[in-house]
């Protein structure tokens, strides 16, 4: 097991090429279960969760001729074992595709995790509305349907992976489905665009209401995984917390509105500029029409952020387009050295505050009352050994370490490796003193 060492106090500055998005790539990979034609994904991120998904897809019958070039001529197995699902909850994303294509699926129940109970009742309720028979036995979901049918379903909460599962299932169902209160996160919209490029008939993508007319089969796909808005904001936060300046690209303006506003509220200077990514992508991939389409659909910009001192601000997490829960921990690290007192209200997950006790070990003054954290900004943090508990909590400890006086050791860094690509190299490139060592 590895840990990260950070010698804090260096002002970060420079330019970052934003890595691609894990949470977009995971469902895009699952699309390869929905067609016997090739599904080719460009720019898959090199993070542990992508490796887990690769292993799962291969178990189920996918072949990968070259990195990112998937093809599932036949489904070999319909079972996603506990061994893999317990490592990566996003394995639940194979449920919709398997059921839609094969009429059967056996997927281990994911169980709770470090950020909450995380039920999947809405995924199952929606699939039942489409006519699936679903039983739970021995920790597994057993789902079957000779062919799923169109349905009317209003999601009790706009779950991200739940919306994607239902959208994938409905794309191959018989008849028309109407969904209300779907998640509007950019990753959900990305999957809708990709499904449409495969021949799915989806209307309303990017909104809470979707109409999906099922088709009997889907064609192949050539797609480029979009940049990761959560990694991007983490690096912006690294510049903010160290009083530095950073330029990041490519940046999809529509994906981070609430976050950019909060950086401004903390008195960071943020500028967005058109950049040449669009033409770069076009030149690189002009032979792949869908890749070009995907790039054209987005307006890429670059974003720069600089900060001197930070000001307190209040934050409430919410489904998109609200402030993302995946940014909460990183902002808490920043607010712990901001001028004044801030409150963070976490409304999406019930237990996403495990970084609080670790930040406090570094000198942060934070009081927790149920879902609300009150943070009284301090003059500075001091380095300590701290324990990572989940992906974004780990990122917040790295940020705190970058700003702290002295050395910080972040233990259990495997949490970070699930979703941050080359984080030490990227931060070193911006002037940070950070290195990996055996724990
Ligand atoms: N929920 C239910 N029933 C369901 C599904 C969800 O009650 O059937 C509740 C959850 O318990 C939670 C809330 O709805 O309180 C939101 O959960 P959601 O289903 O939206 O989360 P998810 O789909 O499991 C994805 C991301 C998470 C991100 C959340 C929220 C992926 C692979 N994961 O999870 O990302 O925090 O949406 O935006 O896309 C991360 O990358 O670190 C991460 C945890």
Lay out the secondary structure.
Elements: E1 2-7, E2 13-17, H1 22-30, E3 39-42, H2 48-60, E4 63-64, E5 69-71, E6 79-80, H3 82-85, H4 95-102, E7 104-108, H5 121-129, E8 133-137, E9 140-144, E10 152-154, H6 160-171, E11 176-180, H7 186-197, E12 201-203, E13 210-213, E14 221-224, H8 229-241, E15 245-252, H9 257-265, E16 269-274, H10 277-284, H11 289-297, E17 300-306, E18 315-316, H12 328-335, E19 341-345, H13 355-361, E20 365-369, E21 372-376, E22 385-387, H14 391-403, E23 407-411, H15 414-417, H16 423-429, E24 433-438
The protein binds uridine-diphosphate-2(N-acetylglucosaminyl) butyric acid (EPU).
Uridine-diphosphate-2(N-acetylglucosaminyl) butyric acid (EPU) binds next to helix 1, helix 5, helix 6 and helix 14.
Describe the structure.
With 439 residues, this protein is α/β, with parallel strands linked by helices. Helices cover 33% and strands 25% of the residues. The protein has 16 helices and 24 strands. It has helices at 22-30, 48-60, 82-85, 95-102, 121-129, 160-171, 186-197, 229-241, 257-265, 277-284, 289-297, 328-335, 355-361, 391-403, 414-417, 423-429, and strands at 2-7, 13-17, 39-42, 63-64, 69-71, 79-80, 104-108, 133-137, 140-144, 152-154, 176-180, 201-203, 210-213, 221-224, 245-252, 269-274, 300-306, 315-316, 341-345, 365-369, 372-376, 385-387, 407-411, 433-438. The strands form 6 sheets. A 4-stranded mixed β-sheet has the order 22-23-1-24, with helices on one face. The chain has a 4-stranded mixed β-sheet with strand order 2-15-17-16, covered by helices on one side. β22 (385-387), α14 and β23 form a beta-alpha-beta unit. It is elongated and about 65 Å long. The chain starts with a strand and ends with a strand. Uridine-diphosphate-2(N-acetylglucosaminyl) butyric acid (EPU) binds at residues 23, 26, 89-90, 116-123, 157, 159-162, 185, 187, 324-326, 348-349, 391-392, 419. Uridine-diphosphate-2(N-acetylglucosaminyl) butyric acid is lined by residues 23, 26, 89-90, 116-123, 157, 159-162, 185, 187, 324-326, 348-349, 391-392, 419.
């Amino acid at each position: 097991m590895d840990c990260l060492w950070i010698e804090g106090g260096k002002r970060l500055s420079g330019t970052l090429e934003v890595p691609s998005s894990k949470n977009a790539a995971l469902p895009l990979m699952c699309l390869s279960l929905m067609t016997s034609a090739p599904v080719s994904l460009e720019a898959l991120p090199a993070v542990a969760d992508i490796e887990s998904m690769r292993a799962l897809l291969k178990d189920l019958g996918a072949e990968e001729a070259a990195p990112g070039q998937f093809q599932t001529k036949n489904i070999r197995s319909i079972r996603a074992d506990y061994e893999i699902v317990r490592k990566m909850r996003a394995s639940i994303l194979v449920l919709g595709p398997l059921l839609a294509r094969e009429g059967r699926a056996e997927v281990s129940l994911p169980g709770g995790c470090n950020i909450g109970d995380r039920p999947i009742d809405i995924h199952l309720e929606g699939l039942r509305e489409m006519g699936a028979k679903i039983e739970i036995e021995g920790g597994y979901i057993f789902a079957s349907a000779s062919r799923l049918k169109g349905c009317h379903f209003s999601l009790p909460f706009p779950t991200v992976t739940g919306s994607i599962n239902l959208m994938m299932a409905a794309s191959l169902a018989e008849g028309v489905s109407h969904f209300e209160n779907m998640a509007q996160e950019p990753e959900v919209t990305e999957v809708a665009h990709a499904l449409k490029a495969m021949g799915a008939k989806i209307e309303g993508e990017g909104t809470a209401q979707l109409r999906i007319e099922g088709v009997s089969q889907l064609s192949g796909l050539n797609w480029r995984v979009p940049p990761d808005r959560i990694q991007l904001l983490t690096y912006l936060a690294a510049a903010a917390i160290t009083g530095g300046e950073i330029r990041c690209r490519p940046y999809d303006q529509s994906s981070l509105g609430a976050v950019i506003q909060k950086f401004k509220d903390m008195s960071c200077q943020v500028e967005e500029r058109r950049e040449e990514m669009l033409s770069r992508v076009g030149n690189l991939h002009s032979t792949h029409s869908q890749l070009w389409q995907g790039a054209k659909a987005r307006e890429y910009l670059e974003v720069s952020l600089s900060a001197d001192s930070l000001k307190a601000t209040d934050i409430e997490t919410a489904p998109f387009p609200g402030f993302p829960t995946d940014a909460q921990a990183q902002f808490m690290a920043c607010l712990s050295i901001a001028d004044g007192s801030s409150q963070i209200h976490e409304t999406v997950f019930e237990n996403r505050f495990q970084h609080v006790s670790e930040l406090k070990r570094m000198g942060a003054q934070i009081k927790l009352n149920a879902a609300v954290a009150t943070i009284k900004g301090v003059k500075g943090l001091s380095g300590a050994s701290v324990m990572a508990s989940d992906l974004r909590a780990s990122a917040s400890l790295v940020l705190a370490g970058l700003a702290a006086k002295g050395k910080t050791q972040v233990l259990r860094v495997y949490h970070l490796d699930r979703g941050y690509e080359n984080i030490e190299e990227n931060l070193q490139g911006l002037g940070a003193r950070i290195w990996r060592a055996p724990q």
